[in-house]
Design goal:
Elements: H1 41-54, E1 58-65, E2 68-76, E3 92-93, H2 98-111, H3 134-138, H4 141-145, H5 178-192, H6 196-208, E4 229-231, E5 237-239, H7 244-259, H8 268-277, H9 291-295, E6 309-310, H10 312-324, H11 333-339, E7 360-364, E8 367-376, E9 380-387, E10 392-398, H12 403-415
Antiparallel strand pairs: 1-2, 1-10, 3-6, 4-5, 7-8, 8-9, 9-10
Helix pairs in contact: 1-12, 2-5, 2-6
């Protein structure tokens, strides 16, 4: 198999949970929303049948009700070869569900006076491979959170000379960009002096009690992480021949142990230095990679755009926090209003759906539904949804290459609504 470090082009068109076929800002129509989204025995049977149909080995599902996490369901196995079952301790790669979580941390930093929505990124960090253009100099924190930077999702991984460059004037159009989030990560690290994991831990995970989240692969939690799976030409699920996070993470951990400096504390520069010192890869997918390719954000395993690993339950607790906005990890009322109100309306040339600050949004009767979707290496596919009108939420996480088809089928089964309409991948 060949390794990919970018999400499919379809994601730049707005691949996400909420219904893409709704015109403009039309509200989602309920089909027959059940009183609770906790699956009953019949829905549980349908979940298992859909897993078999789509050959998804492992699934974790979590439900929010009345603004509180109330239930987690575990299905299948973490690794089809070992047969280790998914349980409450299983960690899934949340992929791009990392973005709204990191975006929330940025809002916490704004409340703390460390950063401002309107400030330019270049005033704090100018990446060495940033093109010298007027548009690049204009990019603000708000542009990043609203996906209006003009930057690409990820630059071509084969081209060492490809500079980071905005394709249009920031703030004038939509462009889903992991590169932009990674640049903002470096700004936040510089502002606080903290590496990504420590930053998120201090401003969100610790005050919110999200003990099963981390922003990187960790050696002491490796046995809790799922493995990625593909579907063979025969239509059967199979363990992927190369488990990038497990193999690459272990090599970086060796460097951390030599340094006596835990990976939890690393900033981007530490990651770059470790890439230069790590033991060479032997798998054909990456054996000939020069160091610069590992330093590209899309290949990073400490990354504000895609490196979160979590239990479905903890991500459901985060969705509940966004919904309630209470406790020591809450944000100011005006920032919550901006986060969950439409900042970028839907357009034919932009996103499939309106965007707030880090979340995709869809008006619903009596509130708004917010969501995001994640896709790592075509094998770790997840989704998260919250609906402020009924204070319900749903998280689904998978470890198979057809996880999107599974969620597309099971989402309406659980919620009784037509939230789901995925861009095909």
């Amino acid at each position: 198999m060949s390794i990919r470090f970018s999400r499919r082009d379809a994601i730049t068109l707005g691949g996400s949970l909420l219904i893409a076929s709704c015109a403009g800002n039309q509200s989602v129509d309920a089909i027959e929303s059940p009183e609770t989204w906790v699956p009953d025995s019949n829905k549980d049977r349908l979940i298992r049948a859909a897993m078999e149909k789509h050959q998804v080995p492992g699934v974790g599902i979590a439900v929010v009700d009345d603004g509180e996490f109330i239930w987690q369901g575990n299905y299948g196995v973490e690794n089809i070869e070992t047969g280790k079952v998914v349980d409450n301790e299983t960690l899934f790669q949340a992929a791009s569900l990392t973005k709204p979580l990191f975006g929330y941390v940025v809002l916490r930093l704004i409340d703390d006076g460390k950063i401002d929505l309107e400030e330019r990124l270049v005033d704090t960090v100018r990446p060495a491979d940033l093109a010298d253009t007027e548009w690049n100099d204009q990019i603000t924190v708000q542009n990043v959170l609203m996906h209006q930077t003009g930057l690409p999702n990820w630059r071509p991984s084969e081209d060492e000379t490809a500079l980071l460059e905005a394709a249009y004037e920031p703030g004038t159009a939509y462009s889903y960009s992991g590169e932009a989030f990674f640049w903002l990560q470096q700004v936040c690290e510089k502002k606080t002096g903290l590496g990504l994991h420590e930053l998120v831990h201090q401003y969100l995970l610790e005050p919110a009690g999200l003990t099963d989240m981390s922003l990187l692969w960790l050696e002491d939690r490796a046995d809790r992480e799922v493995y990625g799976h593909i579907v063979t030409d025969d239509g059967d699920a199979a363990l992927s021949s190369f488990q990038y996070a497990h193999v690459h993470g272990a090599r970086l951990a060796e460097v951390a142990n030599r340094w006596g400096r835990p990976m939890r504390t690393w900033r981007f520069q530490d990651l770059r230095d470790a890439h230069a010192e790590m033991r060479p890869h032997t798998h054909s997918a990456v054996a000939d990679y020069p160091v610069w390719r590992f330093n590209r954000p899309g290949a990073g395993i400490i990354n504000s755009a895609s490196s979160l690993r979590t239990t479905p339950a903890d991500y459901a607790r985060f969705i509940a926090l966004v919904m309630r906005n209470e406790g020591p990890a809450a944000i100011s009322a005006d920032l919550k209003e901006k986060m969950l109100s439409i900042q970028v309306p839907r357009s034919e040339t932009g996103p499939n759906r309106p965007i707030g600050l880090s979340w995709s949004l869809q008006p619903v009767d009596g509130g708004v539904a917010f969501d995001h979707w994640g896709f790592n290496l075509g094998q770790h596919i997840s989704s998260g949804l919250g609906d402020t009108s009924n204070r319900k939420g749903l998280v689904m996480m998978t470890n198979g290459s057809r996880g999107n088809a599974f969620m597309d089928e099971i989402g309406p089964v659980i919620t009784g609504t037509n939230y789901w309409s995925y861009v095909g991948v």
